[in-house]
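Example with several molecule types.
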Amino acid sequence: MSNTVMKIENLQAKIGDKEILKGLNLELEAGKVHAIMGPNGAGKSTLSKALVGHYDIEVLGGDIIYKGKSIIDMDAEQRALEGIFLSFQHPVEIPGVNNAYFLRTALNAKRKHEGKEELNAAEFLRLMREHLEMLGMKSDMISRSLNEGFSGGEKKRNEILQMLILEPEVIILDEIDSGLDIDALRAVSEGINKMKDGKRTFLVITHYSRILDYIEPDYIHVLKGGRIIKTSGAELVAQLEEHGYDALEEE
Amino acid sequence: MKLLELKNKNSQEVKALLNIKDRDNLVERFCSIGMPNKKSEEYRYFDIEKLLDKEYKTLDYIPKTPKISDKIEIVDGVVVASPKGMRIYNEACNNIDLNHFDPLYYLGHLLSTQTIKIELDGDVEVEIEHRFTKSDTLINYRIVLYNQTNRHATVYENFISQNIENTLVLYGYDMHLAQDSTLRVVKMHSMKDNSYSMIASHKVNVAKNANAILKSFDVGGANALQLLKVELAQYAHVDAGHLLYLNKDSKRGTISQIVHVGEHSTSKQEAKNILDGKSRGIFDALIHVEQSAKYAKAEQNSKAILLHEDAYMVAKPKLEIYIDELEASHGATTGQLDKKQLFYLQSRGISLIDAKKMLVIAFANTLIEQVKDTRQQERIKASFEEVFYRAYN
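Resulting structure tokens for the full complex:
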């Protein structure tokens, strides 16, 4: 790949006693949408966790090269500050942490890291309001506790709101479509497509092809048994729909 | 005066030591419970004997004519200022609970021949500021508080100390909530150093259909204990919330008894404890439902977060129930900050230390935000954050 933003080399990782990623290789091309598809238990969510430095994951070998340097020993906050963002499949609820305060703290941490001036409350609210409307989010959601009492759809929209505000470079969407009705799926997809500017890279992790109708992928990677067994263009989706994962042989 | 000299003394000896001629009932009750010691159930985790074994100066109680102020100011147990028109008297307390569990409730009364009686008129909102100015001193006073039927009064309590050391404050309320009334008491007690220790022993009588809302916010590194007995008549309700943030080697907490006497009485008690350093938090709380309290509802919960491996939480929620027709639940958890929540914040670029601070403040905020008045809410938040950030940075 000519313009690689992230390269995962022979990644082996386990959760508890179970080895899940068994020598996974993957290159992400800058500005492209990569979809990872695979059966249950293939290691899709483990991969997303490994990329952001989740505490559950123990890396046994291999490396993750991001913009030319290894991030394998970086902690989660450093990876985030460097521009890697994971939209969680099940965002955690944090009672007592105000959503707007949390987001402003996160944004200002990133701006500080980039040597930019921090935004004050008024500037931040202006920025927030623009995105809220586009995502069809009620304005009171920013004054509520982070994800507390949010419906499944609201939580996913809130993840996308964070993505829009933080403007990361590599965006990992873990099962972003799970639990979304058609309107929420459309709003979330619109938010994602707004970020597709040819510079940002997306890694869309999904069970089903439904989300790929809204976010057109450039590459499809099939993850099975802890390894990427096939990489192809968007046409692979139809093939998978018809024949399933079992029909695929490792390339 | 050394209070430990009252240990194992009979009523005649106690009266002689305290120079009391009457009040036989109180003296008898005090002697029957005995001075608290390290084996007393209520004081087991508090090192009470160390405090009682010190020699303290005592103060002569000389009432003053209060000047006009926007709050009630009590300096070393004497009211020096109060809002215009507020009814405050110095008089003997004639309504003392003879079944209180705390011996220091009785000692407080025996040492205070005069109490500060405050009558809350109408839907009043008043601030009481307690100020302590004397070192090596036993500061003892009691407050008797009345409100009016069908009225909703609020009391905000604050505490200030001025460069003092080795002082012991014994104070407490006897609150009498009138029928169909609401009394909201919000206590903010920030102890920034070890200048004084405090034992606050209260009794709250909640009349029929009345509603007591008692919120205490105790933060900082010193030793203090609040002992609370609440008695609920028919359809009476108490909502008690206690926030505790401790650091260094402080020992603080709440010992309480909520007694359901009347039918359909309800209680809710929630304690949130954040413990750092080598501190010890105490939540020893009994809900007692008498046979007369059919259809009572009682809920009690304590949550503690330990920020340091040497911090220690004593959580003893207890139910004592003599009837079948009721709903009751209680529980206690002690743990560390939630890993999932910490990771979520870190995954957005927030540093581990800032993420921890955010979660601690969030944990506290769930109680602080129950204070209705936003100005007071901000004051409590600011006091808590000041102590927390100073200790945590």
